[in-house]
Amino acid sequence: MPTAPASVLRDPAFARFWVAETVSGFGTYVTTIALQVLVVLTLDGSAADVGLVSAARWLPYVGLGLVVGALVDRRPRRPVLVTTDLGRGLLLTAIPVLWWFGGLSLPVLMVEMVVFGTLALLNDAATQSFVPRLVPRPSLLAANARLDQSDAVAQTSGPALGGALVGLLGAPVAVLVDAASYLLSAALTATVRVTETVRPSTEPLHLRREVVEGLRWVYGHRMLAPFAITTHAWFVCNSALVTVYVPFVLVGLGLSPFELGLTLAAAAVGGLVGSLAAVPLGLRWGAGRTVIAAQLVTPLGWAVVALAPGVSAFGRVAVVVVLALGQLVYGLALGAENANSMGYRQAITPDALQGRMNITMRSINRAMVVVGAPLGGLLATVVGYRPVLVGGIVGFLLVAVALALSPYRHARHDDPV
């Protein structure tokens, strides 16, 4: 039987890891808004440029994701987490330095994002596979809920602070906050005490076979396969909508970076509320029904965004309130869904396959971002922001219905491995 969220923080190893993830998450949300504003305002980029920078961030998942999953399964995960956090901190520090000396441009930023994405790929593979080594199987739902809750708190304050920092210091300098957070996260993770068992070093590496094992586990599993496939489609829709949202707010509606940050902070408030409800919902309805219900709520939030009025008609405050409401609903759905979907995936997967399972799904999801982000930006440039928002909403609805018709609707957290 899954445990309560409060109990997992009594474990010193998980508690320290939780703090490290919270710290880096806080900085990440500052950079999320800072980079997008940097592209649109500092570098005079378009919605298509925002999509290209986002695609560059996720491009390594397309070419390296499956290989990285197999490699991570053969190694202790804590050293990977520490090294990649250090590397990301140094990379982000380079952005304001390049800007200061006049060397920052869209191509340079895209190259930076490719390298950053490679380190993030390694970190993601290790992070999602590290949690099952820190807590027992009955605590996975609670552990993921705690991580989601702290992430939501960081997301609440991060965008608002990011918008304020961008307005005060400029987008390039605001990125330094995230750089510092990664360096602190690396220091904290290095002190986590955990016993990690890995395959003997004398066992030969059969990379192709091990990659295929990961693919077969995900796409041959009765529950994981429909969830994985529909999630890939979900990421195409989500990446298009998220890409279009920033220029829609800044250019289409004429709001400021700070006002943009306030609307994104509302998504984080929703995420916090959703993550607090994730455990009781998952225990009562099961993982499958909770995830499906959350996916049906997601397009409602974006529908509110698509209907946001112009500033000239209703005033800035009214527009910010409408956008914040839409983001609040969106965040609520994500918060309720993530802990249940992640906890279920980890619970039914053997430890030897954790890295490959997680990165197989994540890498292909990020490949969908590489498609969806530039596509959304390009379409917004050609047909406008609101038609792209409507298309993404329809896509979300189709994904939720497809998952509801699959065996995944019966998924429960105590299903056997």
CATH fold-level name: Growth Hormone, Chain: A
Share of helix, binned: over 70%
Report the C-alpha radius of gyration, rounded: 20 Å
Number of helices: 15
How confident overall, as mean pLDDT? 84
Can you offer a commentary on this structure?
With 417 residues, the protein is an all-alpha fold. It has a single domain, classed as MFS general substrate transporter like domains (Growth Hormone, Chain: A), CATH 1.20.1250.20. 82% of the residues lie in helices and 0% in strands. It has 15 helices and no strands. It is globular, with a radius of gyration of 20 Å. The mean pLDDT is 84.
In short:
By secondary structure, the chain is mainly α. The chain has one domain (5-193, 237-410): Growth Hormone, Chain: A, CATH 1.20.1250.20. Helix content is 82%, strand content 0%.
Task: Describe this protein with a few key phrases.
single chain, mainly alpha, 82% helix, 417 residues
Topology summary:
Elements: H1 5-8, H2 12-42, H3 47-72, H4 77-100, H5 106-134, H6 140-169, H7 171-190, H8 207-220, H9 224-252, H10 257-285, H11 287-306, H12 311-314, H13 316-347, H14 354-383, H15 385-404
